[in-house]
Amino acid sequence: MASQYPCVMAAARDPAPHADQTTFLVIDDYGTGGIWMYVHARSAQEINERFPELTVITDWREWMTPDRLVPIIWNLRSYHLDEPTGYLAEYSSAEEARAASSSRVSAHRPSD
Q1: How would you write 39-61 as a 3-class SS string?
Q2: What is the value of pTM for the model shown?
């Protein structure tokens, strides 16, 4: 599948999307800045379900003029949702740790 964004230009060092995937522009917006990346996935919903802290850019924002956006996206890394590496692997590890912690807390709660 082709990217839904005409300006998506993943670097040659990064993996290409699988045949059933689309490339999405994603940000981890931490308030004073953010970590931008491309994520190859079957849908934006798939990304949101797995990594709720990430925002999938589905609509162009008013500020997204070429002079502002091109420097951000020019050399972004891209990652497969199914095979996370780099930042996506860090988010995946954090998500697994939160899930494990949550299940331990639930297991130690007294039952009614």
Answers
A1: EEECCHHHHHHHCCCCEECCCCC
A2: 0.68
